[in-house]
Amino acid sequence: MIEIKDLHKSYKMGSNSLHVLKGINFKVEEGELVAIMGSSGSGKSTLLNILGMLDEADSGSYDLDGIPIKNLNETKAANYRNKFLGFIFQSFNLINYKTALENVALPLYYQKMPRKQRQEKAMKYLEQVGLKEWSHHLPSELSGGQKQRVAIARAMVAEPKVLLADELTGALDSTTSYEVMELIQNINDQGNTILVVTHEPDIAQMCKRIVHLKDGVIVKDEKIKQVRAKAHV
Amino acid sequence: MRFLFDKNTWQEIFGSIGKNKTRTIITVIGVLWGIFIYIVLAGASKGLDNGFERNFETVAKNSIWTWSQSTSMPYAGYKTGRRLSLKVQDATTLQNRIPEIQYIAPVNTKGVFGGEAALGVRGLKSNSYPVYGYFPVIAKMATQKIYDNGRFINEEDEEQARKVCVIGERTQQELFDKDEDPIGGYIRLDGIYFQVVGVHKFTQTTPFGTDGDVYIPFSTFKKLYNTGDNAQYFTIAAYDDADVVQVEKDIKAVLKSIHRVHPDDERAFGAFNLGEVFNRIMGFANGLTFVSLIVGLATILAGVIGIGNILLISVKERTKELGIRRALGATPREVRSLIILESVFLTMIAGIVGIIMGAGVLNLINNLTQDNDFPYTNPTVPIPLVIGALLVMVILGTLIGLIPAQRAVSIKPIDALREE
Fold first, then answer.
1. Four-CA torsion A30, A34, A40, A45, nearest 10 degrees
2. Tens digit of pLDDT for each residue in B197-240?
């Protein structure tokens, strides 16, 4: 599903440049649940941003489901993001003047889907994350866990090839975190490919594979025995 | 285009402009005020324009009145201070020599510029009335509205020096009973019987006219008051395209040469040039229209810039939201359209409300000035001007919206998302 080869990325900080990714090679198959771990500054967020086409690599190749991702202009990147990728952010990033349902339906709006269809589909995904009754509430009326579920529904609604989650439990307490992870595991069980960036080992343990990043290189890539979140809830 | 009619597009726009209502309203007021000022100014100047037109509609707009005075310079053996008198035949000379003159009519009056007015008597009723000796052609220069069944003095009256008269409304009221038909009736003017042929509706066609004026044929006047060839003044109408100032100069020059007056003698002949006054007033009205256009457009511009300013702030505040949208797949084009549409929408709403309010105020002013002499009639703003103003606003709204729209897409989505 994802194949990256010899990925380099550096940031210019005034006169000196900061080499963040120093040749990353890695492959994700369909249906995998991968945790990318590393301390801050290890380059994991940068990697995720490049995978999410929010940022561009300096060199190296990136194929997503066989499509080479390169030389993107903003419009093309936006279309790819819309079709191929679902984002889940640490700070939820819901639009605060839109209801849960409208937030979930937003990616479909940019797919030019007719309104009625859009709302039906958004409702279906809200139901899947267990927030059907909250569909007409504003984000400010939801708890942190609920907000993240809305965000997950929003990421799922366009049926992307890959879900990218950046510290999705970073703003949640552990109980809520496990609830969210349970949801993630369920989605993965349905065959969705998910990449989770985290620095929390217990969250990483709930994935099927952990990629350890340190100083811009992959130091360890291991398949693990998944801990089901359900056991903790 | 589909974008424009999508309910969701509008939901997006209402959502974002409804977020800060106070700010939106104040912003809108900026443009609203602009278009309001524009509409009121343009309408008011149009109303003044119409008002002036109405005030002058009964008189040929390029009328000139000229009369004789005394010389102030010695010339050709004559000493200064010689009294001059216009002659009836001067009118023919003037018409022959000055091709710009369309109509010219000598006039004699009694009781208009001092002197005793004529005594009008009918039965036991009597009063004194100013009397005018008029040629029929006068009707072509100063429209005389004659009440039903009546007529103005005609050529035959003039040729045969008939003793007929056209009386004023007041004369009718004072000399005739209320339900009596004055047409065909007789009144006595200074001892001579005149048959009434018409009653004129009073309109101010000369500065000295009244509703009691009695008009009789010029030739009859001449016989009655023994004026010989003298004429008190000439009423002259130039052709519409004539330069009235030049015509006035020519008239005076011809008169001076006929009456052997020094060419530089400014006091010998007097003249009142309505055409010049009218042109000046119309020039003033046109100037007013122009100024109102400029002021209105400038105010609209200021308002639109205000909208652009607010949107710029709003885009700054919404950096993160726009980042989210773009992460979810909004193309730069879509983000840009959203901002521009917001700008245009705000401008249009402000414009339409401003136009409605402006029209309301114009209507109010019109109602208040309906029944007085203030020259103000039917203050309208021509539809093309209104559409033009709206168009200007849409264009300005789009242009000004481009700045925040460009700002919105110039930030990379990743930077926008990182902003906390």
1. 20
2. 999 888 776 767 888 899 999 999 999 999 999 999 999 999 98
Examine the pLDDT at A36 and tell me if it is beyond 70: yes
| DSSP at A227 | P
Identify which of A49, A91, A158 has the shortest CB distance to residue B414. A49
Q: How far is the alpha carbon of A47 from chain B, nearest alpha carbon, in Å?
A: 13
If one counts the domains in chain A, the total is: 1
Phi, psi at residue A203, to the nearest 5°?
-70, -45
Closest partner residue to B329 (CB to CB) among A49, A95, A110 is A110
Would you say residue B334 lies in a domain? Answer: yes
Q: Which helix (H) or strand (E) holds B292?
A: helix B274-317
Give the residue on B whose Cα is nearest the Cα of A49: B414
Structural domain including B153 reads 109-227
With 60 as the cut, is the pLDDT of residue B420 above it? no
DSSP state, residue B162: -
Helices (H), A20-143: 44-51, 74-84, 100-110, 115-128
- B269 with B68: CB under 8 angstroms? yes
- Give the A:B interface size as CB pairs under 8 Å: 67
In a domain, A216, yes or no: yes
CB contact set of B84 (below 8 Å; sequence gap of 6+): B68, B69, B70, B71, B259, B261, B268, B269
| Residue B347 covered by a domain | yes
Instruction: Say if residue B289 is in the same domain as residue B414.
Output: yes
Among B11, B328, B337, B420, which would you mutate to test the A interface (most chain A Cβ atoms within 10 Å of its Cβ)? B328
Cβ-nearest to B332 among A74, A81, A94: A74
The pLDDT tens digits of the residues spanning A167-193 come to: 888 888 988 999 899 999 999 999 999
Domain holding A227, by residue range, is: 2-94+161-231
Residues of chain A in contact with residue B406, where contact means CB-CB under 8 angstroms, are: none
In a domain, B184, yes or no: yes
Measure in Å the smallest separation between the Cα of A59 and chain B Cα atoms.
Answer: 19
pLDDT in the model for residue B391: 87
Q: Work out how many domains chain B is built from and give that number.
A: 2
Residues of B in contact with A117 (CB under 8 A): none
Residue B86 in this model has a pLDDT that exceeds 80? yes
Domain CATH number, residue A196: 3.40.50.300
| Secondary structure letter of residue A52 according to DSSP | T
* Least CB–CB distance from B328: residue in A55, A102, A106: A106
Q: pLDDT per residue over B312-335, tens digit each? A: 888 888 888 888 888 888 888 888
Q: Tell me whether strands B214-217 and B192-201 are parallel, antiparallel or unpaired.
A: unpaired
pLDDT, residue A100, reads: 93
pLDDT band at A66; cut points 50, 70, 90:
confident
Q: Which of B208, B227, B246 is the endpoint of a domain? A: B227
Q: Average pLDDT in the A106-133 region?
A: 90
Judge: B326–A78 Cβ closer than 8 Å, yes or no.
yes
Lowest-pLDDT choice from A122-126, A212-216, B299-303: B299-303
Average pLDDT over residues A16-26: 88
Residues from B in contact with A at Cβ < 8 Å: 6-8, 11, 15-16, 18-19, 320-321, 323-334, 409, 412-414, 417, 420
Predicted confidence at residue B1, as pLDDT, reads 53
Chain A residue at shortest CA distance from B412:
A54
Of B7, B19, B328, the CB nearest to A115: B7
Backbone phi, psi, residue B207, to 5°: -65, -20
Q: How far apart are CA A103 and CA A109, in angstroms?
A: 10
- Nearest chain B residue (CA) to A92: B324
